Amino acid sequence: MKENFNKQRDSGLENTDIPGSGTSTQVRESYHRYVGKKLVFLVSMLFLVTLLSAFIVTIGPLEISIPDVYKILISSLFPGYFVSEELPSQIVWNIRLPRIVAGIMAGFGLGICGCVMQAVLKNPLASPFTLGISSGANFGVAVAAVMGVGVIGGPYLMVGNAFLFAMLCALFIIALASFKGATSETLILAGIAINYLFGSLSDLFRYFATDEQLRVMVSWGMGDLSAFSWSNFALLLGVFVFCTPLLYLKANDLNIMAIGDENAKSLGIDANRVRMFSMLLASLLIATVVCFTGTIAFIGLVAPHMARMVIGSDHKYLFPASGLLGALILISADATGMNILRPTMIPTGIMTSLLGVPFFMYLILKRKKKEFW
């Protein structure tokens, strides 16, 4: 009888509704759907970047059939199994593929750093160039082109100068903000001042430059992926491997900082320290990208906004989404610039603005009643 009583008691407990249990289950299911939609979006973006890259490698000013392109790629990976002509092989492996890799890495870096800048500065107009990195890199190129002076000689003269002056600008602003208090307003104002200063100095060098020197400066300032080669891949990859995980580890801190520095401090987050650390890593990553690609604007500003419109403001998902959208926009713009007016190639920086601005304005007007920031 005791065993029967226990069975009846357990059965009764199982069938008893616990207050709030249904609500808790609904909340969990809603959260899983919420996370699932974000993961689906990230996987979709990764698939689109892969698919678009596979298509872009088959198009270019020189007509090479799609089977020949992939035969060249396979023969490079598995030599001896396929035979390919020398000229098409050089074009595919040393021109088209490096541009695609550079576009993916540069777009990903610009997107992530734009997301970081907008988060730490709490400003929807912030971009990787808010700290004056672009103007500093332009000034470094101007010094190399006009005076021939740089920290590194030979073919890396302009690249070395661009990186050096970009980092010097970022470090100067970060040091100034640390001295005066690392508030978002201080960083923005310091970045504006540095932009004007080095922009004026670059204009001064352009005024005294010869036609050839001016052409070099203008060409670099428009932004182009052609300067990237396989010899630069290891350096750029190393900076990505170092900076990107460290920035991602600050995603939760940036989420908390969105409610205000004082509230974040009450939860154990030192907002100033997080702000300076994130800005330093973002500056290092952007300086490395800029010194190889030149000034490519718009990506760092728009990619985070597009990602935020789709998946919200949780930086655990917003970081990779901004990077993937930046990569997608950049390789699309570069492929369009290479092929729209063959054999003339339009600089990548021009195409990013021409293609991205109308689409961005469309998204803003379509969902203008919703606040995303």
Automatic annotation (TrEMBL):
InterPro entries: ABC_BtuC-like, ABC_transptr_permease_BtuC. Residues 1-25 are annotated as: Disordered. Pfam families: FecCD. It is found in: Cell membrane. Keywords: Cell membrane, Membrane, Transmembrane, Transmembrane helix, Transport. Coiled coil: none annotated. The chain crosses the membrane at residues 39-60, 100-121, 128-152, 158-179, 186-208, 228-249, 280-303, 345-365. It is a multi-pass membrane protein. Belongs to the binding-protein-dependent transport system permease family. FecCD subfamily. PANTHER family: ABC TRANSPORTER PERMEASE PROTEIN MJ0876-RELATED (PTHR30472:SF25), FERRIC ENTEROBACTIN TRANSPORT SYSTEM PERMEASE PROTEIN (PTHR30472). This is Iron ABC transporter permease. It comes from Methanococcoides cohabitans. The lineage of its organism: Archaea, Methanobacteriati, Methanobacteriota, Stenosarchaea group, Methanomicrobia.
